[in-house]
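From the pipeline queue, job 12 of 40. The input is one protein chain; the requested action is below.

Action: predict structure.
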Amino acid sequence: MKKPLIALAFVFAASSVFADPVVSDDFSAAELSKNWKAAKGTWKVVDGKLSGAEITADKHAAVLTFTSKHTDSKSKISFQLNGSRGFHLSFNHPKGHLYRVVVSETGVQVNLDKDKKNPASKAMVLGKAEGKFEQGKTYTMTTENVGDTVKIEFDNGVKLEAKNEKLTKPKTGYRLIIKGEGVLFDDFSVLSSK
């Protein structure tokens, strides 16, 4: 059996505030690496891509986490809508949900999650941008969180920037969330992290 590709390298760039290792997974192995943890749904590697889908009996969206503690980071992932109308790239802090990048067929938005421990807390849309993400077509998304700012950019030209002081909190990793029939992912990488 082929071992999962987890590449470690050091990146030093004058323009970057980051100097930690880069971690990547191209899903070329038959199974997910130990860095991924499935909480809900069905997740498997199919033809060199990560396939995720909701299981109706779960009564919950499919959730897969790549554990990687950080405060600021830049990550990249390719995706293809494969029946689902979209997905979330979600970030938690050590005590709960923090924020999520919501990608749909018609655009992208950044949502600050409500604090489930505070009944007065409410979810908040920090920003949104229109765009077109067609079923069966592959796109690449880059997400960079530095301080109170998150910047999202897609290879089809869609861009979004959002700010909130809560985005400065330490984060526990990267969570893929899918409702519905499925999304295919490829070439996940943490380009920089601290």
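Job complete. Residues 7-193 form a domain with the Jelly Rolls fold (CATH 2.60.120.560).
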